[in-house]
Amino acid sequence: DIDDVGHKYYLELELEDVLDKESTVNCAAEVLYHLGSKNIAPDVQFTLERELKSTEEADNMFYSQIRSLEKELVAQNIPDSHGHVPPELEPIRRLAWAASGYVIWQNSTESTHFHLAQIKHVKQVKRTDAFLQFDYVVLLHEMVSQ
After folding, report:
1. How far apart are alpha carbons 32 and 110 in whole angstroms?
2. Which residues contact residue 43 at a Cβ distance below 8 angstroms, ignoring those fewer than 6 apart?
3. How confident is the prediction for the chain on average, in pLDDT?
4. What three-state secondary structure class fits 61?
5. Where is the Cystatin LXN-type domain (predicted)?
6. 105, 110, 102, 111: which is closest to 136 by C-alpha?
7. φ and ψ at residue 125, rounded to 5 degrees
């Protein structure tokens, strides 16, 4: 407890690479939840034991795959009602995890436990430049309130 500031937590955890389950990295983190205002995201400071494995090869494969589509990608209900994610949509799911992680962090308190439940709908936005853009509708589940 930090008087008139908030609660600080010290964590030691192991990060698992979603592309290579055998690859892990130790991480130490400090998380400060501010008292009072629920509009302030927690402060997070972390250090990694070593660099994370590069995703450049997988990123380039995904980029090439999406750029080679004749029509813009459109998908819904990822995962489906049986928990299945088609392998070709796994990178789309990982992008949703990253984006929803930011939203979750911004809205976290000590008593929340959000996670990405489902991508309800995703549509690739047509662009004239070389960048990729997607429009997501995601469902976040808050475990505490169910």
Report:
1. 9
2. 30, 31, 32, 34
3. 92
4. helix
5. 1-57, 74-146
6. 102
7. -90, 130
Question: Cβ distance 118 to 131 under 8 Å?
Answer: no
At 146, the pLDDT band (50, 70, 90 cuts) reads: low
CB 107 within 8 A of CB 115: no
Model pTM?
0.84
Neighbours of 96 (CB within 10 A): 20
pLDDT in tens, 29-81: 999 999 886 778 999 999 999 988 888 998 999 999 999 999 999 999 999 99
Residues paired with residue 6 on neighbouring β-strands, in sequence order:
2, 34
Provide the pLDDT confidence category of residue 95 given band limits of 50, 70 and 90: very high
Domains of the chain: 1-53 (3.10.450.10), 55-145 (3.10.450.10)
Chain centre to alpha carbon of residue 146: 20
